[in-house]
Structures are given as structure tokens and as C-alpha cells.
Amino acid sequence: MKKMLPVEELARDERFRRVNIFDAASDPRTVRNRDESKGRTGPQKLTPDRADAPDGARQLMHGIFMGEVQALEGAGRTCWDFETGPGREQAPFDLKLDMARQCWDETRHVEISVKLGEWMGTEVGEFAEATFLYEAACNPDPVLRLTGVNRALEGLAIDIFNTMRDFGKVSGDPMLEFCEDWMLADEVTHVKMGSDWLRRLTDKDPERRANALEFQRVVDKLFSLGGFRGEEEDSPIRLARRFRELAGFKDEEIDEIAELSVESRNDAIAMQQDAAAQVEAKVAAAAAES
Ligand SMILES: [Fe+2]
Ligand SMILES: [Fe+2]
Fold first, then answer.
1. What is the whole-number distance in angstroms between the Cα of residue 186 and the centre of ligand 2?
2. Which residue intervals of 137-250 are DSSP H helices?
3. For residue 185, how far is its CA from the centre of ligand 2 (angstroms)?
4. CB 103 within 8 A of CB 76
5. For residue 55, how many other CB atoms are within 10 A of its CB?
6. Which of 22, 207, 211, 219 is 20 to 30 A distant from 145 in Cα terms?
7. pLDDT at 43 over 70
8. Band of residue 84 on the pLDDT scale cut at 50, 70, 90
9. What is the pTM of this model?
10. Which residues surround ligand 2, an ion (CB under 5 A)?
11. Ligand 1 center to residue 26 CA distance, Å?
């Protein structure tokens, strides 16, 4: 079996379609809609009284399902891609054991997500797949995989599960509430694995630790795309401070994620304005030609 499987070669059947999240986040139509006050202008938090709440919840849950599939693929690859050993290009046996346990958990999460999706009225493949989680799991250094996937992206999963569990509670859906609660408990363990292995493997290698934390910051910022994660009461995804503490995050690390989210929101607005300006320039050029 091939080592280091490229994202293009992931096994998917005809139900799945891929989307580039940067294309979606920099949609130039967003700028005009905002200028003309079209679409949602109030709080973005998903609440049961919103007309688009069922579709929003289904879309978010399908995104979680795709993340579970890729988390399984990523953890499995980390068991296989590296020789077993203490070297920098190797993975210790105990780390592989943790990744094998994670595969078991993620497999269960995939099954839970499929059944929960059916319960919510969603078919597999109804929404597009973004492959960023698996791409972060292709890093050639196992420590960077653990910071990029387990600490950054599964940290994001903690925030999302916690938010969705609260949504299940207030909307009176115990199925949603309990499914999210079960998966949340496992994700705290996965994020803690990332925190523990980061400390263990970089204990005597400050340069490797700095690289790993920098990769985590890059991933955290990219996937706060649009700044949808925050600490405000009406944030679409709320930063789950308590669960992050349990998963080995220090206070200042949680503060940094909140700041990255604000930066990310500003970056997304700049990207949208840039894309809108390019569209306008093309339209003007076409008008001048005709
Ligand atoms: Fe999971
Ligand atoms: Fe996980």
C-alpha cells in the first residue's frame, strides 16, 4: 500500500463532490449583498426561530460527517506512513497506538453522523466536501499532523460539537443533543492526545516545537475562515473554553485562537472585496470592448 496518499486519491464514490473553501469564502457576490443589506444582517448564531435553521444545521452536520471520514483517514495514514521509532521521520509505537484508538472512535463518529444525518433529513453527498482536514494530515512530520489535525481542527470540532449540542438542547431535539455530546467527549481525548504528543516529542527540540505551533496557528487561522468562531454570545460557533482547558490548552493559547478568528474575519472581507473588484474590472473591460 502506498505511503503518503495524495488528497486526490482518497476513495470516494459518485455521491461526493469537492469544493474549495477559499472559493466559497471569497464569493464576490457577498460584497454586493452586504452593501445592499441582502441576506442575514442580524446575529449569525443558529437559533431554532431562524427560518434557515433546519438547513443550516443539516449543512453543518454534513460538514462534521465529512470531517469524521477524513479524521479516520488521517489517523489511519499516520499509523501507516511512518516507520515505528523515536526518530524525527518516524512515529513512536505508543503514538501509533493512540492513532489506532482514534480510528476506532472516528469510525463510530462516521456511523453516528450518517444516522444523525438521516434523522435530520440529509443524504450522504447532499452538500459538497472540503478536504482541508485530510490535507493537514498529509504533513511529512508526525508532530505537525498532531498539531494541525488534533489540536487545531479537532479543537475546532470541540467548539462545533459544543455549539451544536446547545442547539439540540434549545431546539428540543434529544437525538441531536446526545449524539453531539458523545462525540464531544471523544474529541476532547483526541485534542489532548495532540497536546500530550506535542510536549513529549518536542521536549528537547525547541525548533521542532516552534514549527509545530506555527503550523497549528496557520491551520487555526485558515479554518476560522470568515471569523465564524468567537467568544461573543451570538457567534455562529462559540469557542468552548472549558473543554479546551480539559484538552490541554493553556489560557493564553485560547486567547490567541479568539484573536486569530478576528483577524480571519478581516482577511475574508478583504478577499471578498478583492474578488468583487476583479469582477467589476472584467465587466468594465467587456463593456469598453463592445
Ligand atoms: Fe470525530
Ligand atoms: Fe476526532
1. 7
2. 142-145, 154-170, 174-201, 206-222, 241-246
3. 10
4. yes
5. 14
6. 22
7. no
8. very high
9. 0.91
10. 71, 154, 187, 190
11. 28
